[in-house]
C-alpha cells in the first residue's frame, strides 16, 4: 500500500485553516488569541479515545504556564459537533476545542490517519495524535506526530522545554534538509 504523505517541516509556515467551536465561532488554527504570540495546536483522535480524554484533561493543568510564556492553547479533532458535545461530558478542559477536521486537512498537516475498527468506535477516519507549536511568525517551532494513541509527549517535559525555548531564544531545530 503506497500513499503520498505531506510532511510539514520545522521552520515552515503553518497552513491556514479555520474550524468552528461549539458556539459556532470560526477560529484559525494557527493564530493565538489575547496576549499570546505563539500557538499550541493539539490534534486528538476524538471522543472514542479514552487516552485523548485523559491527555486533554491533564493538558488543562498546564494552560496557565503556557499562557505565562505567551503560548495560546487549542485542540481539534475530526469529530462532529454532536460527537464533541457528547465528549464534553467527560472533559474538564479550560481551552477551546474545535471540531470537523477533514481528512484533506489531516493530510495537509501530515498527520497519520486511521480507519475506525468498528462503527462503535466512530463513524469516520480520524487523525492520530499530533502537536504543533507555531511561533509569532506563523512558522512551525515544534512538531510531534504519532501513529497511535500510546505515544504522546510528557507534558511536564514539553512545557518545561517550551519555557526554556521562550526564555533563551532557542532556534527551531530539525531544519537540516
Automatic annotation (TrEMBL):
Domain Thioredoxin intervals: 8-167
GO molecular function, one term: peroxidase activity
Domain of life the protein comes from: Bacteria
Oxidoreductase in keyword set: yes
Any single Pfam family the record assigns to this protein: AhpC-TSA
Name of the protein in its database record: Thioredoxin peroxidase
Record's keyword terms, sorted: Oxidoreductase, Peroxidase
Amino acid at each position: 500500500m503506497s500513499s503520498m504523505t505531506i510532511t510539514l517541516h520545522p521552520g515552515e509556515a503553518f497552513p491556514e485553516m479555520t474550524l468552528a467551536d461549539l458556539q459556532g465561532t470560526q477560529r484559525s488554527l494557527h493564530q493565538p488569541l489575547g496576549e499570546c504570540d505563539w500557538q499550541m495546536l493539539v490534534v486528538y483522535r476524538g471522543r472514542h479515545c479514552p487516552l485523548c480524554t485523559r491527555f486533554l484533561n491533564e493538558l488543562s493543568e498546564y494552560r496557565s504556564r503556557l499562557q505565562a510564556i505567551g503560548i495560546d492553547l487549542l485542540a481539534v479533532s475530526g469529530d462532529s459537533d454532536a460527537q464533541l458535545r457528547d465528549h464534553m461530558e467527560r472533559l474538564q478542559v479550560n481551552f477551546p476545542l474545535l471540531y470537523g477536521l477533514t481528512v484533506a486537512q489531516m493530510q495537509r498537516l501530515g498527520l497519520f490517519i486511521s480507519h475506525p475498527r468498528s462503527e462503535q468506535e466512530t463513524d469516520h477516519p480520524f487523525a492520530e495524535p499530533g502537536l504543533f507549536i507555531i511561533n509569532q511568525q506563523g512558522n512551525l517551532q515544534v512538531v510531534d506526530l504519532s501513529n497511535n494513541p500510546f505515544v504522546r509527549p510528557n507534558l511536564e517535559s514539553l512545557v518545561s522545554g517550551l519555557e526554556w525555548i521562550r526564555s533563551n531564544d532557542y532556534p527551531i531545530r530539525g531544519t537540516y534538509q
